[in-house]
Amino acid sequence: MACRYGIGLSLLGLLAFAGCDAPQAEFKPNLLYTRAKLVKSNRDLHKAEVRVQLEDIADILTALMGTPDDPRLPVLPNVDLGSHLQLDQLRRAAGAVGSTQAGTEHGLYRQHCVHCHGITGDGLGPTAPFLNPYPRDYRRGLFKFKSTPTTLPPTKDDLHRILREGVAGTAMPSFKVLTEDEREALVQYVMYLSIRGQIERALIYEISENLDVGERLIDLSLKTKDPEAFQEQLDVVLAIAADTVAPWLEANENITEVPPPPENWNTAESIAEGKRLFFTSLASCSKCHGDLALGDGQTNDYDEWTKELQPGDEDALAEFLALGALPPRNILPRNLRQGVYRGGRRPVDLFWRIKNGIAGTPMPAASQELTNDQIWHLIAYVRSLPYDAIALPRNYKPAVPRERL
After folding, report:
1. Closest CA to 305 of 143, 178, 191
2. Which terminus of the chain is more solvent-facing, meaning fewer CB atoms within 10 Å of its CB: N or C?
3. Same domain, 195 and 75
């Protein structure tokens, strides 16, 4: 039976063989999110009916996205992922580390990224437990440092910027040593891992919220027994995947515009206005960053990745840790007097952090009542803090007097 979208036959063929001849490297199932969702719907992760539903998800993901050694691009209704990701780039980043006779390196993700971020992109690589902060888990599609509003995916340029510059104050280094083409392959592979992880989460949500125990996401036996019912299942899966992909294709259309600063920006007057705003309820900066901007205001909060582990519930947390989660750590506000800005120190980077907030963290987007000029004044104040008398060592004297500069 032909799929109404004209794409069902290829997916059916892949589903028929999913699970056979498993490759040596495998994507790990997202058991942490599965546990979180199934407990809320009063289901046991270990029941046979639930395991069948989870096997359906694994087979669907293999059919749509392939394996760590053989990535695929799904063909989906109304979206063209191939316009954003190229299979040759994904294959160059995927697989085992090696090179062609011409000297073109492949397996770039395993060579440069997997020891921190893991094969699945779950942030659970072998070095992850020893790092603070932990490496990013890509599977939620949340990225902190970007030019788009909080909940939207980053642009390719955003990811390229992180690879080029690294993330100051963390274990994420700069990869300027790589060629532009190598960085492009890694950027596309990170996007691929994120999209795959988001589709997996959406399918887990589907079985926990919309399917009864025993119902199947995709039941291959229905292909001949009840083609219409099978087509309905297939349409649901493809629609979920398409809805996940669409925001990534629209990222460039959602870049937050950065207006020019006011004429008096970065003057003493501008810095003073930024300082005033820092302590007002309009900006609420001091609530987390502290009265002296030392990052000692609110220190008991968690990021969104950690909140999913229910750190306040000892019994639940023990189950998450048994499933492979890393021990929770509080997320600490930035000590602004150190002058270390993880998302970049350019004024435009700081504008995006204040205007859009930082996805997955307690740092919110700026109040709509805060004008662009006021944001610029806050930036002026923040940039002045490392040079404020309280932030400098006792008896500090600059090596070169400012007048001579």
Report:
1. 143
2. C
3. yes
